[in-house]
UniProtKB/TrEMBL annotation:
Organism: Beauveria bassiana
Alphabetic keyword roster: Signal
Signal sequence, renumbered to the chain: 1-25
The organism's place on the tree of life at top rank: Eukaryota
Protein name: Uncharacterized protein
InterPro entries: AB_hydrolase_fold, Stereospecific_Lipase
Length: 314
């Protein structure tokens, strides 16, 4: 996730430029704030969005730029670091899947209790929340509503980016830690129960695919993949072939997008697919971007909202 300050500035401008493509100023009270339960969403986006990070990551280093993208468009977003091993708070997602799922469910209960109703609408869909998850977070976005009591009834739309729905080779999961910049020996020190459980034939994968529907009544699901994903393989193993599911590849819309697994949460084209899903506009066209659209989360600072629409080139 290396990036120059110049490319980071371009990305910040890009987020804002695409936001104002229709020439209308969007408002939210929580741009750049984390878990602001006083957030007032826009009328067009009344449902809070819970974001779930991937294996070995945190809410910040995996999802904070996507959060900014959604916040600027009027969404209220909420995220947590789940599954951190005791003594290693900055290494999320390594704990057993069931343990993490309880933590995520409790967070969803909290977000729903503190936020639903802000949109000023009494429709059933606006009394719910949406979930966006990447990698293990995408798996948890499917797993938690199925197995944690009461969660499915609180959820409207689930967007799962590259979830290991049917498992992936354990060597691929173990490779994520050094790819994310962690010390090579960290997994020997703290272990990775989630790696075993998300592998092909792993306990949590078998449990999710128990012959009963993955998608719960009242939930809509979008699964987004990159055909070049080298961690969840084959990439289309993430797909769910059930009613109420849209399975899409970013290359279906942007054939020249070369994004891989780790960078998917930083890919502007995938952001637009997420936005389409949350707005119930799956299939809507958008301008594709080609090139390095990622950003170093340590450098990214949201820019001030411009007064007029802007065009930014990478």
């Amino acid at each position: 996730m290396q990036a120059t300050i110049a490319s980071t500035a371009a990305l910040a401008g890009l987020i804002l430029a695409t936001t104002f493509a229709d020439g209308k100023a969007l408002q939210t009270t929580s741009i750049g704030k984390h878990n602001d339960f006083s957030c007032q969403p826009s009328a067009n986006h009344p449902r809070p969005v819970v974001l779930l990070h991937g294996l070995g990551a945190t809410y910040y280093d995996d999802l904070h730029v996507l959060e900014a993208f959604l916040q600027i468009r009027g969404f209220c977003t909420f995220s947590l670091t789940y599954g951190a091993v005791k003594g290693s708070p900055f290494l999320g997602g390594f704990a057993p899947i069931d343990e993490s799922s309880r933590q995520i469910a409790d967070f969803i209960y909290e977000v729903h209790a503190k936020t639903v109703g802000y949109g000023g609408s009494s429709s059933s869909s606006t009394r719910k929340i949406d979930i966006v998850g990447h990698s293990e977070g995408g798996f948890q976005a499917l797993y938690v509503p199925k197995f944690r009591d009461g969660v499915a009834a609180l959820v409207d739309h689930i967007v799962a980016i590259a979830p290991p729905t049917h498992g992936t080779p354990i060597a691929n999961l173990l490779s994520l830690s050094p790819l994310l910049g962690h010390d090579a020996g960290i997994l020997e020190l703290i272990g990775c129960a989630a790696c075993d459980q998300l592998s092909i034939g792993g306990a949590s994968v078998v449990k999710l695919n128990d012959g009963k529907a993955i998608v719960q009544p009242g939930n809509k699901v979008t699964v987004i993949i990159s055909n070049l994903d080298a961690i969840v393989i084959p990439p289309k193993s993430a797909f769910i072939y059930e009613d109420g599911v849209d399975n899409i590849s970013v290359q279906d819309y942007c054939p020249l997008d070369l994004v891989g697994h780790i960078s998917e949460s930083y890919d502007v084209n995938i952001w637009n697919l997420v936005l389409n899903s949350l707005e119930n506009q799956v299939g809507r066209k958008f301008a594709c971007l080609v090139g390095d659209t990622g950003a170093d989360p340590n450098l990214y600072i949201p820019a001030p909202i411009p007064s007029k629409p802007q065009l930014t080139r990478l």
